[in-house]
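REQUEST ID: PR-0412
SUBMITTED BY: lab tech R.K.
PRIORITY: routine
TASK: structure prediction, single protein chain
INPUT:
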Amino acid sequence: MKKILSSHVPSNYLPGVHMVAASAGEVVACIIRVPMEIVKQRRQAQISDSSIKVSSLCGAIAGGFSATLTTPLDVAKTRIMLAHHDSTAAKGNINTVLRIVYKQQGLSGLFAGVVPRTLWITVGGAVFFGVYEKAN
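STATUS: complete
OUTPUT:
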């Protein structure tokens, strides 16, 4: 967003460009985060007789699925964070970074680290929902 907007806006309006880009980023984050929060809140408010084993399983499946799907975004974020400040990746354009990774390493590059990331978040989801069910 910053790259696109800054080329169309005078330099004295760059703080506004940064605000718009940050707001757009927050909107995208909310689109991803809010559905999970709704499920979590509904689960927390629901009174049921389900067991800890069932709650943990639901948390594990939800966490693992979302971790797998969002791995390319995590790869891009990591590349951007670790990029040399003069490189193309350092500019923060996720689509550009995803294309670079795909051209260099293919689909396996986009899903680098998917197994440990998925396992870690799967365990976290199981523990979170299981502990919540026990505390409820």
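NOTES: The helical segments are 2-6, 14-45, 52-69, 71-82, 94-110, 114-135.
REVIEWED BY: pending
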